TrEMBL record:
<dbReference type="InterPro" id="IPR029058">
    <property type="entry name" value="AB_hydrolase_fold"/>
</dbReference>
<comment type="similarity">
    <text>Belongs to the 'GDXG' lipolytic enzyme family.</text>
</comment>
<dbReference type="InterPro" id="IPR019826">
    <property type="entry name" value="Carboxylesterase_B_AS"/>
</dbReference>
<dbReference type="Pfam" id="PF00135">
    <property type="entry name" value="COesterase"/>
</dbReference>
<keyword id="KW-0378">Hydrolase</keyword>
<comment type="similarity">
    <text>Belongs to the type-B carboxylesterase/lipase family.</text>
</comment>
<feature type="domain" description="Carboxylesterase type B">
    <location>
        <begin position="4"/>
        <end position="485"/>
    </location>
</feature>
<dbReference type="GO" id="GO:0016787">
    <property type="term" value="F:hydrolase activity"/>
</dbReference>
<protein>
    <recommendedName>
        <fullName>Carboxylic ester hydrolase</fullName>
        <ecNumber>3.1.1.-</ecNumber>
    </recommendedName>
</protein>
<dbReference type="InterPro" id="IPR002018">
    <property type="entry name" value="CarbesteraseB"/>
</dbReference>
<dbReference type="InterPro" id="IPR050309">
    <property type="entry name" value="Type-B_Carboxylest/Lipase"/>
</dbReference>
<dbReference type="InterPro" id="IPR002168">
    <property type="entry name" value="Lipase_GDXG_HIS_AS"/>
</dbReference>
Amino acid sequence: MGTVIVETKYGRLRGGTNEGVFYWKGIPYAKAPVGERRFLPLEPPDAWDGVREATSFGPVVMQPSDSMFSQLLGRMNEPMSEDGLYLNIWSPAADGKKRPVLFWIHGGAFLFGSGSFPWHDGTAFAKHGDVVVVTINYRMSVFGFLYLGDAFGETYAQAGNLGILDQVAALRWVKENIEAFGGDPDNITIFGESAGAASVGVLLSLPEASGLFRRAILQSGSGSLLLRSPETAMALTERILERAGIRPGDRDRLLSIPAAELLQAAMSLGPGITYGPVVDGHVLRRHPIEALHDGAASDIPILIGVTKDEYNLFSLTDPSLTRLEEKELLDRMNREVGPIPEEAVRYYAETADRSAPAWQTWLRIMTYLVFVDGMLRTADAQAAQGANVYMYRFDYETPAFGGQLKACHTLELPFVFHNLHQPGVENFVGNRPEREAIASEMHGAWLSFARTGNPNGAHLPEKWPVYTKEHKPVFVFSAASHVEDDPFGREREAWQGRL
């Protein structure tokens, strides 16, 4: 029999129930990274006496407001604090049974997002699949990825990757405590989307995360997404410190500047500023995909994929993409991402949808460079090590926004979590009748993979084969889901002259 009160290593927690699923929210997995602990790796949380209430989410970590996505995705007006390192758990019961654990890392470009976002609610997973779901907050933007080693010395050598180390700390907490919630500490699957998938890609390569999870799912991201060199990261740090009035080495100002003021200084640099893991020689010794090639995660099966039209989402945040003439758009891409091979231009021209606007044809270049290339390289690296790899593409096209988004970035999230009923979902994915069937297929595949490392089962209309060096099948989720043989093959060849 399940109970809402559980005993953790740090004290007792009282949760609640919803739709027959138990939940515990706002659980601290570390001491608050404030004051002297700002910009340092985490320390374990303090123990508490009595029973701590765990029926409400904790505050989200410091992050910029984003009105467009708030309206689009139904983001809540959540309290925000530098003290935001909390996790949330959903379980069928805290009854001593060892269930598979799904550990979710949210996306948001390492700038915004939270484990309490309604689309990430774990109720459906726990209810349908007899699994335990964990969602987390982690430090982002300047608080999680401000590279400080060159300006503030060895004490802060890990500051450029604190968001990743937070995830490791949360995984350790889960490893130590999840059995009390009905979970199996030896059967944890990490999964994430966008920056969350980039995080998964880094964790696969990180010795500190070894042994903390058994399987991994990467949705629209890889270890190369938003990855930065020390030089690029330091150049941004210098601009932020100058804007915030912090001189290199001025530790007092670094630790005392109000969090909101530091965040505003960073955001005042304008759009186009990116945060993410740094190959710093301390936390990240080398490129994550190179580490995979050398067997860093050779025993970890992965499920990895993209949406068909990833980059179309960003036509909402940058409408100029839809207004530029073909030559102007190609010239802009050449400036932003470097030379585009003639073979690639020819490939996209030859395979263009003649009924679609030209900008959608050329944004496929960005979809490939930002999302598909890293997916393929990650899959190839793991397959070469003999690990089981399952690749997918999400093809459902949303009718929202006049159809301009098609199968865009983040669109698969409510399907994976089977949360089509959550606030803001219909505004984004529309209400086409095939939604429910696709959600059941994806939800079932993710559950099966978490249980066994294999996504197959009665929930799929045909068998999903393993991706190998010789055979590159991709499962396509659509109104008529099916398997395609190497659908990225021609596109990959078109980029061989550059990548």
